[in-house]
Amino acid sequence: MSDKPVEEMSFEEALRGLEEIVTRLERGDVPLDESISLYERGDLLKKHCEARLNAAQMRIEAIRLSEDATPKGTEPFSA
Predict the structure, then answer these.
(1) Under DSSP, is residue 73 helix (H, G, I), strand (E, B) or coil?
(2) In contact, 39 and 25? CB cutoff 8 Å
(3) Hey, which end of the chain has fewer CB within 10 Å, N or C?
(4) Bridge-partner residues for 64, per DSSP?
(5) Residue whose C-alpha is closest to residue 1's, from 11, 13, 49, 53
(6) In whole angstroms, what is the distance from residue 35 CA to residue 10 CA?
């Protein structure tokens, strides 16, 4: 498992890390204190993945369409 700071991870790295944590916790052979630490990191990874997915969705939604409904370009998403 990577000790890389979550905020520096790509979506794929974070997802892979989350999958590793779930696998370890599901085995049930991790001591309680380590389980708690794994759970906390898993929660951070989950939130990071959600944020990256939300950002990607906003970028997709910001694609502008021309009058004939073909993509015309993109514009930054503004909330």
Answers:
(1) strand
(2) yes
(3) C
(4) 73
(5) 13
(6) 24
Segments in 1-79 forming alpha helices (H):
11-27, 32-61
Residue 68, helix vs strand vs coil? coil
Angle between the N-to-C axes of helices 32-61 and 11-27, in degrees from 0 to 180, rounded to the nearest 10: 150
d(Cα 47, Cα 54) in Å, to the nearest integer?
10
Q: How far is it, in rounded angstroms, from Cα 66 to Cα 73?
A: 9
pLDDT means per 10 residues in the chain (79 residues)? 89 97 96 97 97 87 70 62
Return the CATH architecture of domain 6-74: Orthogonal Bundle (1.10)
Q: If you write DSSP's letter for every residue of 38-50 in order, what string do you get? A: HHHHHHHHHHHHH
Q: What is the Cα–Cα distance from 6 to 72, expressed in whole angstroms?
A: 35
The structural domains of the chain, with segments of one domain joined by +, span 6-74
